[in-house]
Write a structure and sequence with these properties.
- By secondary structure, this protein is of the alpha+beta class.
- The protein folds into 2 domains: 63 residues, no CATH class; 110 residues, no CATH class.
- The chain is 21% helix and 51% strand.
- The protein contains 2 helices and 6 strands.
- The strands form 2 sheets. Strands 3, 4, 5 and 6 form a 4-stranded antiparallel β-sheet that branches. Strands 1-2 form a two-stranded antiparallel ribbon.
- The radius of gyration is 56 Å and the shape is rod-shaped.
């Protein structure tokens, strides 16, 4: 090795003393030209490797977040379907009935009616208070069991084919657009 081949890596000062490992001016490491170029080659290799990795990362991000894919899928959904059923219920129905009742009459000679019997006679001897048994027509109500046919709705689980179009990120996160077949 000659003296011209050795120099400071930091300040590029030529170092003539072969025993020195550090520069007396700036304190940088003393290297030969071949050692200096070997370090530059390592840096170039790292730059190339990092560029390739960065390119692969950019392509991967474009595929995941930007490029949409269309695919067919089966989707389950619920729908309300009508069905007929019989419904039973009670309804108050009016009907006419006769009922007996007791009527107290307070009039002179109230016992002339054959359904009446005198309960009190006055001092002069005629009936002034009668108990009469009478009938009257009354409207009453009873609960009748009735039924009718009604239409009801029940939830039914069905499946259909759908076209989905989404990026990989939208598929993974659940944010997918649907294109239904008609």
């Amino acid at each position: 090795m000659t003296k011209k081949e050795r120099f400071c890596k930091k300040c590029k000062e030529e170092i003539k003393d072969l025993a020195r490992k550090f520069c007396s001016k700036c304190g940088g490491k003393v290297v030969t030209r071949s050692e200096h170029h070997r370090g530059k080659r390592k840096i170039k290799i790292w730059i190339v490797l990092l560029s390739i990795l960065l390119f692969i990362l950019i392509i991967t991000l474009v595929v995941i977040f930007i490029i949409p894919f269309s695919y067919k899928a089966v989707e389950g959904y619920r729908v309300k379907e009508p069905y007929s059923g019989t419904e039973y219920y009670y309804e108050k129905e009016p009907y006419t009935s006769t009922e007996d009742y007791i009527d107290w009459e307070t009039s002179k000679n109230c016992d002339y009616d054959r359904d009446c019997s005198c309960k009190h006679y006055s001092i002069w001897g005629y009936c002034d208070s009668c108990k009469c048994y009478r009938e009257r027509s009354v409207t009453k109500y009873r609960n009748d069991l009735k039924y009718r046919t009604v239409t009801r709705y029940k939830d039914v689980y069905k499946e259909r084919e759908v076209w989905k179009k989404a990026t990989l990120y939208q598929m993974w996160s659940g944010r997918v657009r649907y294109y239904y077949q008609v």
